[in-house]
Amino acid sequence: MVGVGPRRQPSRKGSTADMPHDLLGEIKRLEDLFSVDTAKLKAITEHFISELAKGLSKEGGSIPMNPTWCMSFPTGHEQGTFLALDMGGTNLRVCEIILPEEKGEFDIIQSKYRMPEELKTGTADELWGYVADCLQQFIEYHHEGEKLGNLPLGFTFSYPASQDYIDNGVLQRWTKGFDIDGVEGEDVVPQFEAALKERGVPIKLTALINDTTGTLIASNYTDDEMRVGCIFGTGCNAAYMEHAGEVPKLAHMNLPADQEIAINCEWGAFDNEHKILPRTPYDVIIDKDSPRPGQQTFEKMIAGLYLGEIFRLVLVDLHSQPHVQIFPNQDISALQKPYSLDASFLSDIENDPFENLQETHDSFDSKLGIKTTKPELELIRRLTELIGTRAARLSACGVAAICKKKGYTTAHVGADGSVFNKYPHFKARGAQALKEILDWDKDRDGKKLGRGRDPIEILPAEDGSGVGAALIAALTIKRVQQGHNVGVRDPAGILAGCGPAK
């Protein structure tokens, strides 16, 4: 049996030894364009801190910093049975979460239901009717013949929504392919509850949450060192606990200054003013050609939706340059189709285990109809490294900004999303950037820190849209039982029939 040798490292010495000068020059240009050094990382982080504070102020800013009305971390001793509903663009997921007496433990039963495409452009009644039908099926299957009181529900509604209360949410705009009249600008909760009531489904919506807030709470439930929840996937976002005294835009609520409240940052909008992020000409094109130019600047540089498109734009540009011999005399029409390559295409290139990059050669041939030479493959490989590394290093700036703003010298950060979980080297590259930003290379005595001693670690997160939603429902009931009704629209309704949340 012939082995393929060791897996390739993120880059190799000597891999460009026989490369033509035109391609070597382009690699150097791309390295200069996409590399972000330590000094730039630190400058971005400092600007990020000021923008986080601005979002919490009365004036606001590009980063919304939305108060979620989730007012505490879990203790780990929450108990009870809760439902969780996660309405995504493709699937609807219904979970039953049982929180037992054991600290930080949970049991979960779940079912997935396909979200029919026709619903996305149908009517509001059809949408909420379908969601209520799925909930009814779930309850009837798992609780056949049982007489139930109102089961408390945490609803993960990951669409842009403003919240004056934890049990309401006004949809700002549809995303993920939805375009249903009569919902934008409206509180979605009464519409949803009307469909439940019509069918006699014994459920009481207790908390409407964002998946990032759920990630924060679920991760802290199993690890009390968790202080930040992040999503690095198709999009990007973060949530953390802030003291009310640091949120001037909530001053009218007269909350105690030390009262904690979870903040949903929506940090994809960082640097919409284009003051600090090192945008390339390719980033400018992506923004200009997007449905909402000038918005989500940070997201367009680090999120999975855009990584493949940055890669594609670079290759199309190189092919168009007469002095660069890349894919000469070949039909690149498949490569010229916008958003035809996704982040998984780049992941596969970075994961190619063969010294001659045979898998990458075959992918270009089968997917794009392009025959690649060895020098072209080396450039392609280096380009994926540069794009993936830049995304990971920039993502660390947001994490570092929250930790510096809060004064965290040690903490765990829970991260979820396809890019964090699946993109090669993303975790290691982000950890390295955090070290550089926060100066962990040496300890106070000037001695080198050993491996595995990072004060702030980014770790895989718990299920925010399931366990997190259930926990926030439990925390809301507990808070209302204790007479703390701030940020709750319908405290009497939440308690009605929900049973004790200990």
Molecular structure report:
With 502 residues, this protein is α/β, with parallel strands linked by helices. It folds into two domains: 15-68 and 224-462, Hexokinase, domain 1; 71-209 and 463-495, ATPase, nucleotide binding domain (Nucleotidyltransferase, domain 5, 2-Layer Sandwich), CATH 3.30.420.40. Helices cover 40% and strands 15% of the residues. It is built from 15 helices and 13 strands. It has helices at 21-34, 38-56, 124-142, 188-199, 211-222, 281-288, 299-302, 304-320, 343-351, 358-368, 374-406, 418-422, 426-438, 464-481, 491-495; strands spanning 66-67, 80-87, 91-99, 107-114, 151-156, 161-162, 170-171, 203-209, 226-232, 236-243, 260-264, 411-416, 456-460. Strands 1-11-10-9-12-13 form a six-stranded mixed sheet, with helices on both faces. A five-stranded mixed sheet has the order 4-3-2-5-8. A two-stranded antiparallel sheet has the order 6-7. The termini are far apart. Mean pLDDT is 90; it is low at 1-14 and 444-451.
